[in-house]
């Protein structure tokens, strides 16, 4: 009986941890896409060197959104 109770509590903790991971990933994706859209909207993206602008913007956005998540 106690083993069954422990198993249920362990499953509940795993589900809570998984939910927290999914929430964090969702918030990270939303924050990164919002910041990326701002960067692309206010930069001269079509007229500049596309890959360098996009790469620098992506790295900056990922770092900023990662630190926002902490």
From TrEMBL:
Superkingdom field: Eukaryota
UniProt protein name: Uncharacterized protein
Ranges annotated as spanning the membrane: 21-45, 51-69
Record's keyword annotation contains Transmembrane: yes
Membrane recorded as keyword: yes
Keywords per UniProt: Membrane, Transmembrane, Transmembrane helix
